[in-house]
Structure prediction request, 602 residues.
Amino acid sequence: MSGIERTRNFAIIAHIDHGKSTIADRIIHKCGGLTDREMSAQVLDSMDIEKERGITIKAQTVRLNYKAKDGKDYILNIIDTPGHVDFSYEVSRSLSACEGSLLIVDSTQGVEAQTLANVYQALEINHEVVPILNKIDLPASDVDKTKKEIEDVIGIDTSGAINCSGKTGEGIDDILESIIKILPSPKGDENSKLKSLLVDSWYDSYLGVVILVRVIDGQIKKGIKIKLMSNDQEYVIEKVGVFTPKPTDIDQLNSGQIGFIITGIKSLSETKVGDTICDASDPVNIPLPGFKPSKPVVFCGLFPIDSSEYQKLKDGLAKLRLNDASFSYEAESSSALGLGFRCGFLGLLHLEITTERLEREFDVNLITTTPGVIYKVHKSKGEIIDLQNPSNMPDPTYIEKIEEPWIKATIITPDEYLGTIIKICQDKRGIQTNLTYSGNRAVLSYDLPLNEIVFDFNDRLKSVSSGYASFEYEITGHKEGDLVKLSILVNTEPVDALAMIIHKDFAEKTGRQVCEKLKDLIPRHNFMIPIQAAIGGKIVARESIKGFSKDVLTKIHGGGAGDRKKKLLKKQKKGKARSKQFGRVEIPQEAFIGVLKINKET
Prediction:
């Protein structure tokens, strides 16, 4: 039996919190990848934020040696993938580097939305899937019901499903044996030309760019000159290694194996995920199909609370971009918030984690503007522009139509919460496309506009279903919508950071709420401040903040007081008018945060 036949490459896929990382820990421990002293919970989750939140953000890989019951030694390459919808691009490229998947389903929760999404991705690329029922040690575990749900909802045979507990370690031996027996070995030819897939890359401050590769054909050795086919650049390999899970140097990676190479590349932009790596002296003619590049779908402005921290924010964004190719940013300035950046994310969790990392790792206090999506604006002369920032929207007289992105959402929920969830979807302009049942759980399909769900949809779903409903989506395209730009004016000056693109039906109500909130949050000045919400030239809501009134009459007494009073009041009135004309209204940071919260409450 050759080396390639004794290799197994597999991903671990599941919904959030179903035990992927814990089972990966158990497999690593069983195969001797780490000693008892070196083991820690979620050993593959390297970021503090991953450990604290108990989620996987970056897909991680590890190579293990396993002696099977048949006495032969096998090489196992595991990729532990994220479960959250925002990081599905990590899942897709991890699956492309493998031949099989371990599907982990929590036997107390059953099939969830992201379970479905990840399994379908695996089946699309012809993966062999081994179903594993986790958490059987818990009293609420119902193995038979979960098996039936997997067969009904996903359509996978569960007669060979393995019962296990990541917590106690029960069933881990059965998982390892089924990996050997059920999952196929990689296909490839060690003797043909080098062809390998660039799976991932990240920046290491000591080594430069580290490239994770899956060798399809041939061998990667230290010292050979390789070529990246997307940009025709050539580099010499300085180091070849694998994660065990500790980085370990080896002499070469053979066909079918996964490992890392270091070539002295200093810029991540040169390493395109999905690229084909070949031998510079004997290149292949046809590159591998690669991956679809991940596109940011949610945009918002990030501004430092203290303008002196702008450079710190800029450096922080540049460093985060090194390890996260799906995140984009460009400089922008706001009259209300000063200098900042317009950033693109894959979803709300991605946004939340990026801002938290900026605040924690780079010590920058941030203010985030209302998240929005990319609209396609069709202008009357036939020009189509992509609009991310509402303040850049052209004059409505030049706009023929505006298209907004729509998604196909899959929601899985216990039956008792179905009515409330349908109501939320209808409130968000959703169109129901399908409803099926598996036992007492409903699988609901909806078409929804992305800008309606991008802010708080997941939170509301979890809230009304006591945490039991799960949600997954994919973008389907753009559709025309009756959308308007809602401008907020403070003291007749538009505040660009508070502008938003919104459906016409919700614009008036939202404008009223924003004005009411700002009235409470903007401090009083010496003059009256009008706060207005406008659609084009039409004011749809207004509130006023009364000005302070200084008593200028207390010192007046004696004869002719009436005339002097009139004179002083007239002078005060003139002063207030001048203040209103030239006075600058400082909008505190709490006001911007308060407006963000409105969207969550509606």
About this structure: The two ends are 63 Å apart (CA to CA). The longest strand covers residues 399-414. The chain has five domains: 7-182, 195-279, 298-369, 394-481, 485-601. Confidence is low (pLDDT under 50) at residues 39-58, 579-583.
